[in-house]
Design goal:
By secondary structure, this protein is mainly α. The chain is about 65% helix and about 5% strand. Strand 3 and strand 4 form a beta hairpin.
Length: about 200
Amino acid sequence: MNSSTPIDPALQALTRQLGGALVAALHVPDDPGPPLLLPRAAQPIAPALLARAMPGTQARQEAQALYSRCLAHFRRSALAGAPHDDAGLAAAYFVLANLDVLHDLHPDAEALARVERQLRHTLHQLRAWQRAPLRERQSACEQLAVIGVLVAESATAARAQGLVAQAHVQQAARAYLVRWLGINPDGLRLGPQGLALDLVVA
């Protein structure tokens, strides 16, 4: 994998605001708001969108098939086959998959649930998310899920391939967090309440 997966402008506009809001609001109230469930688009949006910048028809088709498989895997495993998508869960999965690569966190289901609550609360407070058209929110949710699965699977493969492969995936994970969320991952850690931020001295 590499970190050159194209960024959809609508997704970047939403998620970079999400990153800033998350850093400002890591502590979640007892009621983070209802789950951010989204009706699914009639046809998946993210696979073709993410594959469109690949050079050549065959490369685009192969990339789209890979991204479609990643999205199906997320829906089957994280959502247990539910008929809807969950934006808070997709965002949490994306963040933890990348942080796991960088900090060897090995997050479990409880950790994912804690971070989902944080991101759910943050998205409820984010005006840009609330105002975004449904299709943009569906696309953002799908893309975060796809990249989260892609990173997690690439990390698993890299552990069997050696240090060079692991370093390559780490580079990609850092780039995803910086480019998509605008977050410096060095100060983020996983604590008892979910994500926590340490001061990083430049």
